[in-house]
Design a protein that fits this description.
Elements: H1 6-14, H2 17-37, E1 52-56, H3 57-67, H4 73-85, E2 89-93, E3 96-100, H5 106-114, H6 120-134, H7 141-166, H8 185-191, E4 205-207, H9 208-215, H10 228-240, E5 244-246, E6 253-256, H11 263-271, E7 272-273, E8 289-290, H12 319-324
């Protein structure tokens, strides 16, 4: 089958453009769960395929069914076929799938499997909207508060890790860090004996389960809310904007591609609508204009409609120029 026909076949089988995106996000989410957290999963990447991760397909299918219980069983097989067709997976061996690292990035996978069927800004918007629906989060002060707390906790751990490396692995503390992370030994056990950088020296690398343990400290810093959904959404956003990337040679590990996490940037990408005007998105946090979602209809699930934005300002300040862009 022609590669150009694959996106249309996937949408047809899923029933709608919206359902296709939900299925792709669910697949990427399930892959991360099996590869990073499955206790029976090997800690080494598939040696015959550099930059490919080996994953048990039966475990992956079960995780997909759990994450997306209403999806037809044939959808999983269709996704596997399409992922191999676009070169993101090698041929399976002995029930093991071999996936490229980019499959762990939800937006990348959506773009690869649905390229040409919608403009890129539509793909990004609906993918991020799918994440919001999955974890039941809307644009609100509560969501912003959750992201800020999780950002502060993870940034403190990143800073402590950096200090640990700079000080030749000596025991140090930071007075300005999150209180629950001030005791150095609580963090040092996560990475003692492991180099702080990946093979290319491009960023700290962490075992994924340790990041979950660190973020779980949010329970001690805020009210007694359920932090499972906020943490999962936060991590999914980090993968979507490439703050995290699967390690090149070790399963269960991720590489941090930034020196610090920016909660405003994450929220802007999660709720923003890109303007496609060079430089303008950066004025709104990097992800575009953050506008409240409209009433959800069947049509709005499959097509990104227009938005009316009123621009105010004195004459000569660039209102007309902005509109013409």
């Amino acid at each position: 089958m022609d590669l150009k026909e694959l996106p249309f076949k996937l949408v047809t089988e899923c029933g709608s453009y919206h359902n296709a995106i939900e299925a792709i996000l669910s697949f990427s989410r399930s892959l991360r769960e099996v590869a990073f957290l499955d206790s029976n999963h090997s800690s080494e990447a598939f040696s015959n395929h550099p930059y490919y991760w080996q994953v048990d397909l039966s475990e992956l299918r079960r995780a997909f069914k759990k994450d997306s219980p209403t999806a037809d069983s044939s959808i999983f097989s269709t996704l596997l076929h399409h992922i191999r067709a676009v070169g993101l997976s090698a041929d399976p061996r002995h029930g093991e799938g071999n996936f490229r690292r980019s499959v762990f990035q939800p937006l990348t996978l959506v773009r690869e499997l649905l390229t040409g069927i919608r403009p890129d800004h539509d793909l990004r918007y609906f993918a991020m909207a799918g994440m919001r629906r999955k974890w039941r989060r809307a644009l609100s002060s509560a969501t912003a508060h959750e992201f800020q707390i999780l950002t502060d906790i993870l940034n403190s751990a990143i800073e402590l890790r950096a200090d640990y490396d700079r000080k030749s692995h000596s025991v140090i503390t930071r007075e300005h860090t999150i209180p629950v992370l001030r005791k150095w030994d609580e963090l040092k056990r996560f990475y003692e004996g492991h180099p702080s950088r990946d093979a290319f020296g491009q960023g700290q690398h962490w075992q994924y389960k340790h990041i979950l343990e660190i973020l779980a400290q949010a329970e001690h810093l805020s009210d007694k809310r359920d932090w499972k959904a906020p943490i999962q959404l936060f991590l999914e956003c980090c993968f979507a904007v490439y703050y995290f990337q699967a390690h090149a040679s070790k399963n269960k590990w991720v590489v941090l591609r930034t020196s610090s996490i920016d909660s405003a940037f994450l929220l802007s990408n999660l709720f923003g609508v890109t303007t496609a005007i060079a430089g303008l998105d950066d004025l709104f946090g990097g992800g575009g204009l953050i506008l409240a979602d409209g009433v959800v209809t069947e049509e709005s699930r499959n097509h990104l409609g227009g938005r009316a934005v009123l621009t105010l300002g004195r004459y000569g300040t660039g209102k007309s120029l902005l509109c013409m862009q």
